[in-house]
Design brief:
Chain lengths: 115, 112
């Protein structure tokens, strides 16, 4: 069964360093997303990406964050200068274009720890 | 800001009992998904409901979308220990109708 894959599964980085989280969405999907989940809190929307551009972003997704689809398969989230409060699980998701049916499929996540 | 409130937050029951989890909002959603999440893993999609009043069944799980598309419920019949997990509802909205707003989740424990 097709699935969204994310790498790495765990990433530890020092405050102020740049990190890139990688995702391979399901191959025939057109919409791509990043969500995050701080330990013990709800899953929060960060950004959606369609047709090679950001279609929507939340207030969390500030200038420190960027997304890219560098080739036909990968979708990346870059955090330019990490802060302690960026520590969280980051989930990539993707979906087909099916109008009102917006079911998104999630990857296993990358646990980011900023020290 | 759209909010989805789930209740109860925690539920501990005995094997064989029935239960219902609720997901409520003051906002209208274009569709609503139910996910299940295990510790340290990503949410796994269970079902999507789109039409107001829609009812979907997945074995012992019954999902209902409210007539006004603002609320939903998940009913589990004859719960089993394998049903233990975190159940999340997520409503779709946004400019392209695809941003998901998640509830806090209901942590279900089914004791043998």
């Amino acid at each position: 069964e097709p699935e969204v894959t994310q790498t790495p599964s765990h990433q530890v980085t020092q405050m102020g360093q740049e990190v890139i989280l990688r995702c391979v969405p399901i191959s025939n999907h057109l919409y791509f997303y990043w969500y995050r989940q701080i330990l013990g809190q709800k899953v929060e929307f960060l950004v959606s990406f369609y047709n090679n551009e950001i279609s929507e972003k939340s207030e969390i997704f500030d200038d420190q964050f960027s997304v890219e689809r560098p080739d036909g398969s990968n979708f990346t989230l870059k955090i330019r200068s990490t802060k302690l409060e960026d520590s969280a699980m980051y989930f990539c998701a993707s979906r087909q274009d099916r109008g009102r049916i917006t079911e998104a499929f999630f990857g296993q996540g990358t646990r980011l720890t900023v020290v | 800001t759209q909010l989805l409130e789930q209740s109860p937050q925690f539920l501990s029951i005995q094997e064989g009992e029935n239960l219902t989890v609720y997901c409520n909002s003051s906002s209208v959603f274009s569709s609503l998904q139910w996910y299940r999440q295990e510790p340290g893993e990503g949410p796994v999609l269970l079902v999507t409901v789109v039409t107001g009043g829609e009812v979907k069944k997945l074995k012992r799980l019954t999902f209902q979308f409210g007539d006004a598309r603002k609320d939903s419920s998940l009913h589990i019949t004859a719960a089993q220990p394998g049903d233990t997990g975190l159940y999340l509802c997520a409503g779709a909205s946004g400019s392209s109708g695809s941003r998901l707003t998640f509830g806090e989740g209901t942590q279900l424990t089914v004791n043998p």
